[in-house]
């Protein structure tokens, strides 16, 4: 007889474990073999001071050259799948379909073949933030024509790789892309606060849905793969038990996850009502005749509704939220939603300010998604722990504790709350280029010596943790 306690620590048959990365953060070779310039190449080269340590990703982990070694490492840990992203400007240097860079195609084709030859399933993200600079020059995600450019790019990827790739993610964390249109620190850093976010998000959603429909009409019957979008969510805990704070926390959830999930997984193919109300009222108070939140046409709503084959969820941490109607700073994050964010003294943290260890928040996110959108096949496309260089070592016990406790909570959501989760991707395989935080934050299961011209890789203890976990398939 099996011990029921033992059973509750076991992952169901078919549950998949993987590890993730993204092109800009690991590949390097920024201008090699015909690759075009991306907005992150431009940002890091033109404004090196905005990167915390003045570093860039010109070489990064040099995975463009070392991909065979990477695949062997991933295999040695035992992962079922590897989630990586394609650099749009490596395939299409200017983002335009008439000019295909065959060397870029070859690179990803070789990587995919190498993975499959080693028994690792590829999961491919089309857009993890490295937009071709040329497309930015003509308006980027604020230009409605970006939907057609993205559609062309997606079709090319499906055509060239879809015989071997069965898992597709259109866009990684559209929320971050959108926020980069409102602020001055995250590419494209356009500072169109209060308008740029909503406009770019609108086109990100439509680009996703268009790519999804292309796959289903042109490729699905022959390739039999699945397509989704990867949506990030923090769990937002109310600061007090007051009604206002509880509503504020729920609002924060809607303005982050609901913003993108409601149009795709909700009943109406539209933004959450609370967003429409709050942004509509704020816009009115500013004397506008239209809301800063764009509207979908009925055709666009039906395009969006149901445009996903599974639910890609990314989760790292939690915040504490309080209701605050009087936010004076005109550029305050989330002024429209009338909340303030903080964190709890009780949460153990990393030294990275936004990253606290709150395993219960993971369970709550899975429950929230399931409660809001009905039974979903959730697939965790990113979850991980990092700290600054000086606090991370090969004996990364805190990272192991993070994964262990988060996975425990995930299993509770599956076993006790009736939620379905079918896979988990750890972020990240390597220490890599952390956007404007540069090389200082370390999120890898594998350390990379960036000073070494050969970018020597060394497994941390957490890699051994995953190896044992994947062998046991039980916590
Ligand atoms: C992931 O996003 C990214 O997908 C991945 O590329 C990245 O390497 C990983 O995070 C680790 O950073 O600076 O206080 O404004 C996770 C969600 C959203 C978390 C943005 C950090 C910045 C908070 N991220 N957030 S702050």
TrEMBL record:
Record-linked SUPFAM superfamilies: (Trans)glycosidases
Keyword Hydrolase: yes
Lineage: Eukaryota, Metazoa, Ecdysozoa, Arthropoda, Hexapoda
InterPro entries: GH, GH_1_N_CS, Glyco_hydro_1
Sorted UniProt keywords: Glycosidase, Hydrolase
Family: Belongs to the glycosyl hydrolase 1 family.
Pfam families on file: Glyco_hydro_1
Protein name, entry field: Glycoside hydrolases
The keyword Hydrolase appears for this protein: yes
GO molecular function: hydrolase activity
């Amino acid at each position: 007889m099996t011990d029921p306690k033992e059973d509750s620590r076991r992952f169901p048959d078919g549950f998949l474990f993987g590890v993730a990365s993204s092109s800009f953060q690991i590949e390097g070779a920024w201008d090699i073999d015909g690759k075009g310039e991306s907005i992150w190449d431009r940002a890091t080269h033109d404004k090196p001071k905005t990167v915390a340590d003045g570093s860039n990703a010109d070489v990064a982990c040099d995975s463009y050259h070392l991909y065979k070694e990477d695949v062997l490492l991933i295999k040695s840990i035992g992962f079922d799948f590897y989630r990586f992203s394609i650099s749009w400007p490596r395939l299409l240097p200017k983002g335009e379909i008439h000019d295909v860079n065959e060397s870029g195609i070859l690179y990803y084709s070789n990587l995919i073949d190498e993975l499959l030859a080693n028994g690792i399933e590829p999961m491919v993200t089309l857009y993890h933030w490295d937009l071709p600079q040329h497309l930015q020059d003509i308006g980027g995600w604020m230009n409605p024509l970006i939907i057609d450019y993205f559609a062309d790019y997606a079709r090319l990827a499906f055509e060239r790789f879809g015989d071997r790739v069965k898992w597709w993610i259109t866009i990684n964390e559209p929320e971050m892309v959108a926020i980069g249109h409102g602020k001055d620190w995250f590419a494209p850093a356009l500072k169109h606060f209060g308008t740029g976010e909503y406009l770019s998000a609108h086109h990100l959603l439509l680009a996703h849905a268009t790519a999804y429909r292309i796959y289903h009409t042109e490729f699905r019957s022959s390739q039999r793969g699945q397509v989704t979008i990867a949506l990030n969510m923090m769990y937002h805990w109310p600061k007090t038990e007051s009604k206002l704070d509880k509503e504020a926390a729920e609002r924060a959830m809607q303005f982050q996850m609901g913003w993108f999930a409601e149009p795709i997984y909700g009943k109406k193919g539209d933004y959450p009502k609370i967003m429409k109300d709050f942004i509509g009222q704020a816009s009115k108070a500013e004397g506008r005749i239209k809301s800063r939140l764009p509207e979908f046409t009925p055709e666009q709503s039906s395009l969006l509704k149901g445009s996903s084959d599974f639910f890609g969820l990314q989760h790292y941490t939690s915040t504490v939220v309080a209701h605050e109607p009087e936010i004076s700073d005109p550029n305050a994050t989330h002024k429209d939603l009338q909340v303030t964010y903080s964190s709890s003294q009780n949460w153990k943290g990393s030294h990275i300010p936004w990253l606290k260890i709150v395993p219960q928040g993971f369970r709550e996110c899975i429950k929230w998604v399931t409660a809001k959108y009905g039974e979903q096949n959730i697939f965790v496309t990113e979850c991980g722990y990092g700290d600054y260089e000086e606090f991370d070592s090969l004996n990364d016990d805190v990272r192991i504790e993070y994964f262990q406790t988060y996975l425990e909570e995930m299993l509770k959501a599956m076993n006790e709350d009736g939620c379905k989760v079918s896979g988990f991707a750890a972020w990240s395989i390597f220490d890599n280029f952390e956007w404007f935080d540069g090389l200082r934050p370390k999120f890898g299961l594998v350390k990379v010596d960036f000073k070494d011209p050969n970018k020597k890789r060394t497994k941390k203890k957490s890699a051994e943790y995953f190896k044992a976990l994947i062998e046991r398939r039980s916590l």
